[in-house]
Amino acid sequence: MKKRIILCSVIAFVVLLVAGVVGVGVFGARTVNFENSLTVENKTEGVYVDFSSHSHADGYYIYRFDETQKETIATITKLNKTAFTDETAENGKMYQYSVQAFNDEGETFETQSLDIMRIETPEILSVKNGVGGIDLSWKKIDGVDKYTIYREHKGAKTLIAEVSPDNPCEYTDETAVNGEKYKYAVVASADKYKSATEYEKSNTYVPAPENVKAVNNNGSISVTWSKVADADGYLIYRKTNGNKWTYLGTFGNDIIGYTDTDVSSGNVYTYTVKALSENIYSGFDSFGVSTNYVDAPTIKNIANVDDCVKITWNPISKATQYRVYKKADGETNWKFIGECRSASFTDSKVGDGVGYRYTVRAVGDKGGLSTYLEGKTITVLKMPGIKLYCGGKAITVKWDIRPLATSYRVYRKAGNATNWTYIATVKSDKNYYTDKQVKNGVNYTYTVRQVYSDIYGSYNKGVSTKFYPAPKVTAKLSPKGLRLNWDKANAGTGYFIDRKTENNMNWTNIATVDGLGKVTYTDAKADYGYYNYYRVRVKGTNRISDTVSIYGIDPKIPAVALTYDDGPHPTVTHDILDVLEKYDARATFFVVGSRVPEYPDCVKRAGKIGCEIGNHTYNHKILTSATNSQITAEISKTNSLVKNITGKAPEIARAPGGSFNSRVKETVDMPLIQWSVDTLDWKHRNANSVISSVKSSTRDGSIILMHDLYTSTAQATETIVPWLISEGYQLVTVTELMQLKGIDMKDGSVYYSAS
Ligand code: ZN
Question: CA separation (Å) from 626 to 590, 595, 638, 660?
């Protein structure tokens, strides 16, 4: 009874509905509509068969046809139930369904039959945050053509992708937005049939950190990543040499970097990072980023060696190779310059005076590279170019001036020596060194190192020469000019004559003498009135004579020699020297040896201004009445006293009183100088008398006798000197006078004048 009442009310509702909407007759229309009222669709539990109720029905049979048979799979007698789920349909199989209504009067009404392929719902196995989106995976359904992915977001459902069943049952929703919540459905379809659409699992998207990088430092690895918006923290995981992930810790949102100090050379470390946002974890890159950690080599030593830079460093365990980098002063980027297996490297591509910084990176046995350390700097100091010259008694080592050098160190190998011997440090204001410790015929090799601050420059193999002395050169005046003589050289093809003068202190080659036989040269174009300097170079060798200097006096101009005997005197000699100096004139002083130690400054000064010092015995002894040994002592004592003061022993003598005989000439054994103008100053002690004597008797080549003991003589000198000059005379020493006139003075000979 109860059943009927419910049925009646349902029928009444349906009748009202259909009558209202369709406006057709109740019974007839029902029958027709029932035939077309079937729908079938795949639901998760099975094939869902749905139909309209029939007003005359007391029940329904649900029929299912497969290829082989038609069977009744259900009988429904509950009249309010017009649907049935066929849970026995097999996935991938085609079925036909129809429904037949029946009643107690034996009437039946049957729907048309509908085809459907049973397709199971692909169960979503997981929806989770991945790398670059939300990762979905679902259970594979056999026999389907494709999977269609739908997404529900804020109530809107959209188709977002189709996936071929040839691919894995996975999809990454890359359009997911950080912080948004999504629900997904996966629908499998085959031909026109499809599985149920079930929005099951939801996920709030938190992106995985991107740009994860692991970089070797010295003693640690830096792991960095890009910040994920709104993340509350990051979880760091590491694996060593491909083993399992180990959780290293969670770090706050303000950190986008982690420094892993628990590392050792030769291990591969792999890192991955997860973001955490409102208790939801992002996905993570399961491959991670790897680095083969290698300790960084420390440069132990950096040095200038053989005009290159040699770098050595501490070897690194598990390193198979080293890579060397440098940058020159002012450069910002490291430049790779080479690799090697040993812990040292030589860089030959360096410029002298340039500063470089070097660093070395180790390559690990599994391929990693150590970090760049700051490295070490050096200023390249190559060996300067060297030239060697053999002088009279020494080898001169000359080198190119290097702009940075603060000093130079000179080294030598003598003969067959294999090791360098340090011989000198030369300050940078000089670029040569004279090595006097040399022997004839011995081979010498030299090298020079620059020193800049505390940096020592390179050695190299150096430059060699055999030492042979250069010719010794002498210079004197002659009637035709300044005359040079030198020793004949034992090698070479001739001689170069070089000159410099007070007015031009650069060496100038003034003549070439071909062949070794001729060993004299007269310079007719000397700089008269100044000092002239000469050297002789042996053509075809590195021999350069020592420099000789000579005061230039013009042989074409008349000349006289003033001579002063019996000094030195503390005031008179100086007064005379004052006059001579004032007029750039010179004279000859025949000194008494016993007075020399008392007034050495007079002698010294006379020598310094170009005057000649002659020997006038030690005690002013009349030599004709002295014994031979007394004569020898008188002469030699004075010679050595003068030499001590001026550095040069007298080369001429004057006998006291002008007294000599053949025994005296022979024993003195020096040129004996008399005079041609006797002023008798010792007798008159009168300046005017001296002056008139000079004015009346002097001619070209005269030797004038005076004594630097008397004030009157000094006064006379004040007049004589300018007068003689005004008369056109040059005032020269006795030796100069003789040379100008071409007189070759001989020991034991007597000379009165040069006219
Ligand atoms: Zn005298």
Answer: 19, 20, 16, 11
Distance 653 CA to ligand 1 centre (A): 11
Closest CA to 283 of 170, 417, 408, 450: 170
Sign of torsion over alpha carbons 350, 352, 354, 360:
positive
User: In this structure, are residues 512 and 537 in contact, taking their beta carbons and an 8 Å threshold?
Assistant: no
Q: Which amino acid is at 249?
A: G
Distance 672 CA to ligand 1 centre (A): 13
* Phi, psi values for residue 534, rounded to 5°: -130, 150
What's the distance, CA 753 to chain centroid? 74
Cis peptide upstream of residue 568 (ω within 30 degrees of 0): yes
Q: Where are the beta strands (DSSP E) in 104-190?
A: 108-110, 114-117, 124-129, 134-138, 146-153, 156-163, 170-173, 181-190
Q: Cα of 575 to ligand 1 centre, how many Å?
A: 19
Distance 719 CA to ligand 1 centre (A): 23
**CA dihedral sign, ordered 697, 700, 703, 707:** positive
Cα–Cα distance, 31 to 78 (Å, whole number): 19
Q: In the Cβ-directed half-sphere of 298, how many Cα atoms lie within 13 Å?
A: 3
pLDDT at 24: 34
Residue 384 to residue 217: CA distance in whole angstroms: 41
Residue 707: active-site member: yes
Q: Give the other-Cβ count within 10 Å of 469's Cβ.
A: 19
What Rg do the C-alpha atoms of the chain give, in angstroms? 62
Could you tell me which of 536, 705, 701, 551 has the C-alpha nearest to residue 616? 705
Q: In what order do the strands lie in the sheet with 504-514?
A: 504-514, 494-501, 531-539, 548-551
Residue 564 CA to ligand 1 center (angstroms) comes to 9
Strand-strand pairing, 335-340 and 156-163: unpaired
**What gap in Å lies between CA 352 and CA 307, rounded to an integer?**
8
Distances (CA, A) of 495 to 393, 505, 519, 587: 18, 21, 8, 35
Which tokens hold the place of 662? Answer: 């053949």
**Chain-centroid distance, C-alpha 162:** 61
- Please tell me the distance from the alpha carbon of residue 340 to that of residue 739, in angstroms, as a whole number: 75
Which one of 347, 352, 565, 681 is the catalytic residue? 565
What is the whole-number distance in angstroms between the Cα of residue 726 and the centre of ligand 1?
A: 29
Contact 706, 560 (CB under 8 A): no
- Tokens read off for 279: 């208790």
> What values do phi and psi take at 630, rounded to 5?
-65, -45
Residue 257 sits at φ, ψ, to 5 deg, of -175, 150
Residues facing 241 on adjacent strands: none
Q: How far apart are CA 216 and CA 572, in angstroms?
A: 92
Distance in Å, CA 572 to ligand 1 centroid: 15
The stretches in the chain having pLDDT less than 50 are: 1-32
Indicate which residue of 54, 569, 616, 707 is catalytic: 707
CA of 635 to the centre of ligand 1 (A): 14
The Cα 490–Cα 516 span in angstroms is 8
Residue appearing with tokens 């000092």: 531
Chain center to CA of 459: 19
* Res 365: pLDDT: 87
The predicted structure's pLDDT at residue 22: 37
* Catalytic residue check, 50: no
Is 72 exposed, middle or buried, given 0-12, 13-18 or 19+ CB atoms closer than 10 A?
A: exposed
Q: Spell out a b/e string for 192-228, using b for 16 or more CB atoms within 10 Å of the CB, else e.
A: ebbbbbbeebebbbbbbbeebebebbeebbebbbeeb
pLDDT in tens, 562-589: 999 999 999 999 999 999 999 999 999 9
Query: Any bridge partners for residue 194, and if so which?
Result: 189
Q: How far is the CA of 476 from the centre of ligand 1 (A)?
A: 28
Query: What does the pLDDT read at residue 66?
Result: 87
Distance from the alpha carbon of residue 256 to the mean position of ligand 1, in angstroms: 108
